[in-house]
Amino acid sequence: TNPDLLRINQDEEARPVFRLTHSTAWxxxxxxxxxxxxxxxxxxxxxxxxDRRNCVGIIDSLxxxxxxxxxxxxxxxxxxxxxxxxxxxxxxxxxxxxCACYIGKIK
Length: 107
Prior knowledge:
Elements: H1 3-9, E1 18-19, E2 29-36, E3 40-47, E4 53-58, E5 72-76, E6 82-86, E7 89-94, E8 99-106
Antiparallel strand pairs: 1-2, 2-3, 3-8, 4-7, 5-6, 5-8
């Protein structure tokens, strides 16, 4: 079991998941977000396509404008890898039908 995935799923505030991408076509990749307790958030990037995709997520979509000058720390819930000082976007290459999931916090 993955305690981070369980924590996202069973967060005590039970806020709904929302889409961060606005594409209506499900053949590519989509990004979802969820606000968590403790001033954290989750980001899920899913590649629904049959091809490897370079997925770009804009942090502005979380309601954190670049002009605010804030930096984010994102931790991969599968590998534990930390992406520090993210300020405007996240870019990740995903294999077909794969996903990446992060728990983030404003620094």
